[in-house]
Amino acid sequence: MKSGTWHALGFVSYRSGLAIQDRVADERVRNLRPDTLLLLEHPPTITLGRRASDADVLWDPERLGRSGISLERVGRGGGATVHVPGQLVGYPIVRLPHGGRAVRAFVAGLEALLLDVARSFGVRAGRRPGHPGVWVGERKLASIGIEVRRGISRHGFALNVDVELTPFRAIVACGIPGLEMTDLSREVGARIRIAEATDVVARAWRARFGAMEEETWNELEAAR
What separation, in Å, do the N-terminal and C-terminal C-alpha atoms of the chain show? Predict the structure, then answer.
């Protein structure tokens, strides 16, 4: 079996992304595939993690509808977040050590990975105790929220690359009122493309987590 694979899925609806995650995770549980990193973009979608409440959504359903933002309650950890075009979402489908109990170490590893990515673009980012993710001062650059089932991780991280920030006003992001978001393009002062960020994330993953081969869409479909 390969040491690991990654796949750039492109632009995928949130529910389709969940379905792909479920299938890949099931294959990982049965050892039909190695650890797999899915990289993709979603249309505007608010997701509410296990720590989120309905009060974290500040816009009413009518305004969300007019803005083209869907709403999903999911099983990952954390609070409310927003996925938008220009945000690189990573779903690592990984078998965690100790029967899946090494969650904190895995989250710390994802933070380190994203710090490596930010550094590659010349962005000085850091951690914030008690709030998983990656920060530039008080501004949040990337969010992390995972779920572990049968020892396999699902969900993952959302790295703001070149995003429209208005949809983030629809929520209390990460349970922090007034939280300001940012993206790589704003911090760098030049537009960064998703494809460029995808390549950097894949390289950073290899450096942190080991060898990984790119998997094409046809190969992913053939594994069904």
Answer: 16
